[in-house]
Amino acid sequence: MELRPVINISSSLQDALIFFAKTFNSTVEDHTYQHFRECKLKGYQVVRVNEWIQHNGKDILSLDPSTDTWSTLHPQAVLLKQELDRETELTVRDRLRFQEACAELVKKLCHTDSTSGWVMTGVLAPLLAVLIFFGLILLSFIISKHSSAHPGAVLGSIVHYPAQNSDG
């Protein structure tokens, strides 16, 4: 069984992953490691950033964001935890960079939401007005074709002339 990483990682971390894979009680020859990160939001604000590592779909390590240390969720992941805890500066830097990226994404989404409403209103309102105008013109032609009355009769009845004075 040959174990090779898919991404570039430090040799000590690679050794810890290989050791974990070899000591893991499994008949599976292929081992999959997944590194997850998530932003917890409340409204449009980043509340917390979570990070964890899975092996073959099971959580084995999680990062405590308050101490920036890894917690083992599987007894055989202790060596992997120790290796990751040695690189605390890198862990802190990565977590902060990810937290900033989450905040930036939320800002972009907020800006997109607020501008898209105005764009939709600015486009749809005139379009709807033009459609209604042409609809009314079409409706007046249809009514005038089916009616025997003069098409201007309604308009003419609206215009009132002043009463004539006979005093003069």
Automatic annotation (TrEMBL):
Keyword NAD: no
One Pfam family here: MHC_I
UniProt source species: Coilia grayii (Gray's grenadier anchovy)
Keywords recorded for this protein, A-Z: Glycoprotein, Membrane, Transmembrane, Transmembrane helix
Keyword ATP-binding: no
InterPro entries for this protein: MHC_I-like_Ag-recog, MHC_I-like_Ag-recog_sf, MHC_I/II-like_Ag-recog
Residue stretches spanning the membrane: 118-143
Residue span, MHC class I-like antigen recognition-like domain: 20-108
Protein name: MHC class I-like antigen recognition-like domain-containing protein
Coiled-coil stretches noted in the UniProt entry, renumbered to this chain: none
